Model the fold of this input.
Amino acid sequence: MTDDALARAGARRLLSGVAWNALGRGLPLVLALLLTPVLVHQLGLERWGIFTLALALVGVFGILDLGVGPALTRALSERMGNGRADDQAELVGAALAVLLGLSLVGAAVAWWLVGPLVTRVLNVPPELQAEATAAMRVLVVAAPLVVMNAALWGVLAAHQKFRAANLVTIPVGIFYYLGPVLALMAWNSLVAAMLALVACRLANTISYAVLVRPLVPGLKLSGIRLAPALPLLRMGGWMTFSSALTQALNYADRFLVGALLTLSAVAFYATPLDLVLRFWILPVAVAQALMPALASSFRTLPEETAVLLRRGTLLIATIVLPASLLLVVAAHPALRLWLGMEFADGGAGVLRILGVGILFNCVAFAPGSLLEAIGRPDLIARFALAQAVVFVPLSALLLVQFGIEGAAVAWALRAAVDCAGRLLLVRRFYPPAAASTTDLMPPLLAGGVGLALAAAMPTTTAAVICATLALVAFAVLAWRSLPSPDRVALLGALRNPRSLLRRDAK
Done:
């Protein structure tokens, strides 16, 4: 029992999972950026607008899983860590049955609402209304697939099958963007593009189901009891509420800017914010690999769990800090090259400030994963509510006083408070990790203070010097805080990074 939990919490396995998750998310994203101009040209501006709204509808479908996917990862991982894996089939079957039922109801409601949405709510030209309605209704078919995929991924993550899962996810993700381009070549209709998207979702579901079946012997969707799914729904509900509230806080500022300033100010603020939030691909890759290891070890191996927290936090910071420093130092030239001088002049100050905050925003994923692993996502949700009470008014006040740079300061401060608060919650509710949170403070402070100083420097040369010193100080302090086995694993990964991708590391 303990040996299995110890193996699941190993440094090499964590690094392998992070590498595969980053590839699974990153490669399709790169292709999406390359193919977006092609799709815009094929569809035209108005139909492209409808296409993006339809993609947003797919995102809404994700809410229908009620957080059961990550809750399933946690529950299965805890069982495997404690040597209780005999009831997996009943638990997974109950979760899939509940989600299938809920998603079918949600899809039926969405099918009915699409007509009024297109004809009465959205400003769709009359000549495109029939095509838009048909296309969106085709995409509604994907709702149960999206929800089932989230649950099946939760099972694969619990078994730490990140290599296998991402090997099937990557080609499906690629065709999720390439498929509409090819379909539009054969049939120039939004319906064709949506059929391609549904086909990709179906392929994803089938591939995940094939991978899950040997992991959960006896899995079926008939003759099962739904009672085992109720704890998952409670846990998943808190996770969903926490995630939705965090997302709302991350995006609330742009609505305040639009209400109190101008639409051009929204553009100058929202564009840098969207850019820094792209960094989430990195901590999400770490958190997905971290959760099953933490859930397996927190009861039987508290010392190893504390090491995992330190390991995951430093891994996120090590990946994000250099990119944040680059944004802070090169904010103006980066925006100028990407969007032109007007955006550079209007948004560079915002980007420098957000570049400081995104470090803490990303690092907070690690203590958040531990709180969820021990079964306390409610703490994250309640803390997010407290932040909303304080920081939404503060953001409005700073926005009025200092413009969009003031809103950026409020966002960065909230990110730092959120990170520090989650670490304090870990100290309070999982005492074995208290020493690890103490050890993490020096490198995180070195990185954050260095970023802030670099952002405040009046010249690029001074900013580069500050950034370099911050990077060196963080590296030294982070290395000192790592236990010896982690140093060995890290050096091995640096010498031969391809070894992490050969298999799910043991």
Remarks:
- The chain has a mean pLDDT of 82.
- Residues 107 and 141 are 7 Å apart (CA to CA).
- The longest helix spans residues 88-121.
- The two ends are 16 Å apart (CA to CA).
